[in-house]
Specification:
- The structure holds two protein chains of two kinds.
- By secondary structure, chain A is mainly beta.
- Chain A has one domain (about 35-235): Porin (Beta Barrel), CATH 2.40.160.
- Chain A is built from two helices and ten strands.
- Chain A has an eight-stranded antiparallel beta barrel.
- Chain A is elongated, with a radius of gyration of 27 Å.
- The longest helix of chain B has 18 residues, at about 375-390.
- Chain B has three domains: about 1-50 and about 60-110, 2-Layer Sandwich (Alpha-Beta Plaits); about 115-425, Rossmann fold (3-Layer(aba) Sandwich), CATH 3.40.50; about 435-515, Immunoglobulin-like, CATH 2.60.40.
- In chain B, the strands form seven sheets. In chain B, strands 7-10-6-12-14-15-16 form a seven-stranded parallel sheet, sandwiched between helices. A four-stranded antiparallel sheet of chain B has the order 2-3-1-4, with helices on both faces.
- In chain B, a hairpin with a 2-residue loop joins strand 19 (about 440-445) and strand 20 (about 450-455).
- Chain B is α/β, with parallel strands linked by helices.
- The chains are: A mainly beta, B alpha/beta.
- The interface of A and B includes residues 33, 203 and 205 of A.
């Protein structure tokens, strides 16, 4: 007990009289050139993005509703600087593509049935490799750049949503009928394509063109979904 | 869909598709003529005569008219020029610049377009009840009260200020004493080529007040009787700007007789890396050195990068002839956390001196508390004007050295404080030698080196800290520390921490001692 009291007393006494170091600097440490940074050897960051589909179904049947259709993505991007004007990199991302389908008489896909609302969703995990060309001389910033690359996505899930009302829709007794159909067998499990981005520091505009078909070849009656999407990306760093 | 794409393009395109700015250096000034008496203001001629500088200096000759005409005939837009560097600024694309490079009289071309950083942090607009006391301390930490009592208030000294705008400088009561005597000599907005600078970013009025503000006989800055040249060189607090404005402004300041330039801004990572801060890489650092060679004292804030990734000083504070000013926290009286650290990457001492970086300054309509080394710099610029008035025979670099010597830590220094806070008593020859008696002991016992203080710090001492650094044989600091002293035994080192040629230097209560190994 006596020892314990002595130890506690010593500890308190030490802290009461201890010198308070307010500032310590080792200037040599600041001369070490870091390897990680926006315009250094390696750089990685996360980003969010949204691309809107910019073309029609392949058979020009009922088109998608642009305002409700697009691909939202969240990803991790790594860049390896080769020279001040050239870099290589890869990108791992999660995406969710939504195709909201116009309901009119031209509609053929995924059926001719007219719903109040109808959309298809594909969830994907993707990898992209890209080469970056920078345009400007700059310090430790991303700067202005053009990325050109190719991607491959594993479409791990797909769903078909519909929404209808019992008739008459405006009746107080009308019920909402929602259906969800999962793991749609007419979608390919993989897709690939090319992608180009034009960016300036945190922002970029991007265009993605899917080369592969999304609809399995045996479903010949189905039109192919829009292949071109254009959007905006925000880098978070 | 079309609208969506157009919207995205409009959002992004100004950044991506804009033309670049270049500076085109010319080989000679063929055919140009120069009359210094029609070009320079009388004050500029007077400064050259006092400092024994030539009136006919080739760097002051204008750009060759023939070359200018030829470049203009290629349909390239010339946005400005610099006599000192014999260069023209152009806005054009890479194809046209390739043509320009082929011209026989073009020496080389550098790309401009960079992001300026005004060195102020977020403002605190809350006005405290202790403003008068705060302002008294703001002046007295530099012993500005001694200057005023002795009648040194910067009278006859012409100060040029480069900043983002001066809204309210033409109406605010803190500058009435300046306006009454027509001591705003000239103004120019280099961003729009107009005379009116009383607009845009209020950072400039903050800065001006820290040099010469006066409210109800209470000083905000020291040089209340100085003359001013106000140059707007930056578009906003975080714009894409061009260093060309800074270059043009420095020549304009020289032409109009500036003796001191205060620049509370600088350039960082839009164009440079921290290791580029060697005083030679950036054009503004080279221009600042040339301004010094023409007899002007350039005072620049070190920047507010101390607590972020950049950490180091910004340019042109890295230039060797620029008096770079770091920030002190008025509460703690040592380095304020955001003030950028030195040295320059070629190991020159930066900052050179320090001053308060939390101040009361004028806003367009009022006064407020605000943070940033932006305000340390004008406090020292005002100090420099008063100091120069005490010794008008000094040239700019003599004044530079004397300001360093006057500072509170001298001959001790480190890369956070420089030599400390300049003190007016040094220039008024009121320094009390008795105060410089040793206050510390360096003891060597066996393999240990102990730093001991002789007296504990007085309770009312503002600067009660013990500073030590270890300097290697090349003159570079390996380590430095600031310690709040509360007992006699302050620090113990193992002797193995030192190498041959190292110097352990300790500063405490105004006295510096050292031990060489």
């Amino acid at each position: 007990m006596k020892t314990l009291i002595f130890v506690i007393f010593s500890f308190i006494a030490f802290n009461v009289t201890a010198q308070n170091v307010l500032l310590t600097e080792y200037p040599n440490n600041d001369t070490i050139i870091p390897k990680k940074g926006p315009n250094l050897k390696k750089f990685y960051f996360v980003y969010i993005g949204y691309e809107a589909f910019a073309d029609n179904f392949s058979d020009n049947s009922a088109n998608i509703r642009n305002r409700a259709s697009g691909r939202t993505s969240f990803g991790f991007k790594f860049k390896r600087k080769i020279t001040n004007f050239w870099a290589l990199g890869y990108d791992i991302n999660m995406s969710s593509s939504t195709f909201s389908i116009k309901q009119n008489s031209q509609k053929t896909f995924p059926s001719v049935v007219i719903h109040k609302k109808e959309r298809l969703m594909i969830g994907g995990l993707g990898v992209q490799i890209f080469t970056r060309f920078n345009f400007d001389r700059r310090g430790n910033t991303i700067g202005k750049y053009l990325d050109i690359g190719g991607y491959i996505n594993w479409n791990y899930t797909s769903q078909h949503f519909t929404k209808d009302f019992t008739t008459p829709a405006d009746s107080s007794n009308a019920l909402t009928i929602k259906t969800t159909e999962s793991q749609l067998n007419y979608f390919e499990n993989y897709e690939y394509g090319v992608k180009a981005s034009l960016g300036s520091n945190h922002f970029a505009i991007s265009a993605t063109y899917r080369i592969s078909d999304l609809i399995k070849s045996k479903y010949v009656i189905y039109p192919e979904l829009p292949k071109l999407s254009i959007g905006i990306y925000l880098a978070l760093f | 869909m079309k609208n969506y794409i157009i919207f995205i393009l409009l959002l992004i395109s100004p950044n991506i598709f804009s033309q670049n700015s270049y500076v085109v250096f010319l080989k000679d000034k063929s055919g140009s003529t120069f009359n210094p008496f029609s070009y320079f203001d009388a004050k500029a001629i007077e400064r050259r005569m006092i400092l024994n500088k030539p009136l006919f200096d080739s760097t002051d000759f204008p750009i060759s008219e023939n070359y200018l005409n030829e470049i203009e005939n290629t349909n390239i837009r010339i946005t400005g020029c610099t006599r000192w560097f014999n260069a023209v600024f152009v806005n054009t694309n890479e194809k046209q610049i390739a043509e320009i490079k082929k011209l026989p009289y073009v020496k080389n071309v550098e790309e401009l377009n960079m992001q300026v950083v005004l060195c102020s942090s977020k403002e605190n607009i809350e006005i405290t009840t202790n403003q008068r006391t705060f302002l008294k301390n703001q002046i007295e930490h530099l012993q500005g009260n001694l200057f005023k009592d002795a009648g040194f208030t910067g009278k006859g000294i012409r100060i040029a200020i480069f900043d983002g705008g001066f809204p309210g400088a033409d109406t605010h009561p803190a500058f009435e004493h300046i306006r009454e005597n027509n001591r705003i000599i000239k103004t120019w907005d280099f961003t729009s080529n107009k005379e009116n600078v009383y607009l845009a970013n209020s950072h400039g009025i903050n800065v001006l007040s820290c040099i010469a503000g006066l409210i109800d006989t209470v000083q905000i800055g020291l040089a209340i009787d100085a003359e001013f040249l106000l140059a707007r060189t930056e578009v906003a607090s975080e714009p894409f700007s061009e260093e060309k404005n800074w270059l043009e402004a420095v020549e304009w300041a020289d032409k109009n007789g500036a003796q001191i330039i205060n620049s509370s801004l600088g350039y960082t990572d839009s164009r440079y890396f921290p290791w580029d801060m060697n005083g030679k890489k950036s054009l503004v650092a080279r221009a600042a050195n040339m301004a010094a060679s023409k007899g002007m004292l350039v005072v620049n804030a070190v920047g507010n990068e101390g607590s972020n990734r950049w950490k180091k000083i910004i340019t042109p504070a890295d230039a060797d002839s620029v008096l770079s000013v770091g920030g002190i926290d008025p509460e703690t009286y040592y380095h304020i956390n955001f003030s950028s650290y030195g040295p320059s990457t070629d190991w020159r001492l930066k900052p050179n001196v320090s001053a308060y970086a939390h101040v009361i300054a004028a806003t367009p309509n009022n006064i407020h508390e605000t943070d940033g080394t932006s305000f340390s710099s004008p406090l020292v610029a005002g100090f420099a004007a008063c100091a120069w008035q005490t010794h008008p025979q000094f040239n700019n670099m003599q004044l530079f050295k004397e300001i360093e010597k006057s500072a509170s830590l001298y001959p001790y220094f480190d890369y956070a404080h420089g030599y400390g806070i300049p003190q007016a008593s040094y220039f008024l020859r009121k320094t009390n030698i008795a105060e410089k008696q040793p206050t510390t002991i360096i003891e060597v016992i066996d393999d240990f080196i102990n730093i001991k203080v002789i007296v504990l710090p007085p309770k009312d001492a503002l600067n009660k800290y013990l500073y030590f650094h270890i300097q290697d044989s090349k003159g570079h600091l390996k380590k430095y520390e600031v310690i709040e002293v509360s007992q006699y035994d302050v620090k113990t080192f193992n002797i193995s921490e030192f190498e041959k040629g190292d110097i352990l230097r300790v500063h405490y209560l105004g006295s510096t001692i050292e031990k060489q190994f």
